[in-house]
């Protein structure tokens, strides 16, 4: 860590809590409320009912924050660069939204111009699908749709285990056989009810996102700091301090700009439902 990065929050007890959390996930699997990784009902701007994008070859639609991500990726693909665009969904479970994006961007993916990455802490989509969680909001037909999406488009998405520790530097294999590290090359990092909400040591994990972003990269995260929007005990109090310090370091150490309102488009000036940090060469946040 540099002198400006948080260093006083990560006690041995909190690091041990993180290790217990990882071990529990490895032993019994995720107990997350939602493991689909579908964000069709999430809006970047509350009340924004912008037109969705039809996914070729079926009845799927990219809507809500999915449509924003798709349009943002399309803009990046329009720039002349020597390397592919990389977009990572952190803690994305099965990665349904990324599977839909892979159908929408079939040609850039096949040409090696786009890499869509879904990361999980310990397990991949096969284990999620095998468990077939009896969640109240998913009928058997809904599970079948998710399974079919994965069977059809799963080979277009890079599924990786990623703990977002400073020692991690995962890479993706491109169609030309070249490997590209995520660190410094990630153009879009997205998380929802995952890293910030569940991490026992967010002052370490959030800073790793900062290391991953390219100069044109953006990081979309939740405004709230826990699943329930509040912290209940001493550990969560220290965790909250870690989140605040890490987000400040994203700006002061990594030079990212915090964006809280739409910068361009029909909804310019409207407050964002998510928090965004962006690199010095990232395009305006447009809705």
Structure commentary:
This protein is α/β, with parallel strands linked by helices. The protein has helices at residues 12-28, 65-77, 96-104, 106-110, 125-131, 140-153, 195-198, 202-212, 234-252, and strands spanning 53-54, 61-62, 85-90, 114-120, 157-161, 171-173, 179-181, 186-191, 213-222, 257-261, 271-278. A seven-stranded mixed beta sheet has the order 5-4-3-8-9-11-10. The longest helix is centred in the C-terminal third of the chain and has 19 residues, at 234-252. It is globular, with a radius of gyration of 18 Å. The mean pLDDT is 85.
Reported for the largest beta sheet, the result is: 7 strands, mixed
Envelope shape: globular
Q: First CA to last CA: what distance?
A: 36 Å
Total strands: the figure is 11
Q: Classify the beta-strand content into a percent band.
A: 15-25%
Number of helical runs? 9
**Can you tell me the residue ranges where pLDDT is under 50 for at least 5 consecutive residues?**
none
**SSE string, helix = H, strand = E?**
HEEHEHHEHHEEEEHHEHEE
* Rg over C-alpha atoms, rounded to the nearest angstrom: 18 Å
Helix content: 25-40%
């Amino acid at each position: 860590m540099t002198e400006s990065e948080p260093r006083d929050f990560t006690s041995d007890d909190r690091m041990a809590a993180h290790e217990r959390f990882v071990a529990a996930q490895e032993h019994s699997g995720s107990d997350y409320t939602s493991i689909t990784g579908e964000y069709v009902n999430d809006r970047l701007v509350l009340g924004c009912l912008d037109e969705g994008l039809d996914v070729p070859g079926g009845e799927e639609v990219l809507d809500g924050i999915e449509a924003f991500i798709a349009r943002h990726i399309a803009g990046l693909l329009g720039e002349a660069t020597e390397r592919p665009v990389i977009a990572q969904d952190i803690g994305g479970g099965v990665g349904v939204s990324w599977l839909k994006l892979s159908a929408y961007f079939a040609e850039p993916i096949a040409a090696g111009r786009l890499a869509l990455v879904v990361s999980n802490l310990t397990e991949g989509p096969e284990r999620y699908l095998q468990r077939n969680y009896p969640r109240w909001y998913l009928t058997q037909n809904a599970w079948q749709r998710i399974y079919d999406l994965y069977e059809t488009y799963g080979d277009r998405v890079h599924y990786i285990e990623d703990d977002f520790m400073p020692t991690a530097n995962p890479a993706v294999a491109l169609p030309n056989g070249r490997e590209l590290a995520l660190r410094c090359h990630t153009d879009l990092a997205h998380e929802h009810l995952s890293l910030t909400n569940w991490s026992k040591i967010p002052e370490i994990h959030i800073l790793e996102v900062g290391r991953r972003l390219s100069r044109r990269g953006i990081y979309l995260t939740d405004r709230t700091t826990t699943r329930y929007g509040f912290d209940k005990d001493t550990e969560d109090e220290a965790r909250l301090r870690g989140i605040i310090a890490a987000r400040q370091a994203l700006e002061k150490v990594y030079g990212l700009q915090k964006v809280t309102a739409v910068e361009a488009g029909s909804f310019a000036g409207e407050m964002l439902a998510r928090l965004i940090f962006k690199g010095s060469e990232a395009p305006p946040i447009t809705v």
